[in-house]
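Reopening this ticket.

The earlier resolution said the output was attached, but the attachment link was broken on my side. Pasting everything inline this time so it's all in one place.
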Amino acid sequence: MLKRTLSLSLQRSIPQALVWYLCYVLICVAICGLAGGLFATGLTPRQIFCSGAVIGHRTAVLLIIAIGLLLLRHRDKSILNFAFAVAGLLISVYVGAVGGLIPLTVLTTRPSNLGL
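Inline output:
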């Protein structure tokens, strides 16, 4: 079940997809928190927190775009696969990485074209 957990090219079963989701949520939260902490500016702690949150959220959207494109690279270029990637992007704009990864998790269960 945990074999090649972070691989983006495999077709996964439902339990494998859930493990994939949890791993990528942790990775995204760590990267977004680090980006927000490093590039936050402000004079008061409240301003620093708010600017860090905005930077972290924008980083999450960029990560969802990158992960979606990498997932699509190994899948058929069908309308449904693109719809999952776009849904992940739109959800991440409002919710962040936690919500944006849900459609991408469903995309990992779709057939991969590695065998072709």
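Reporter confirms the inline version is readable. The chain has four helices and no strands. The radius of gyration is 16 Å.
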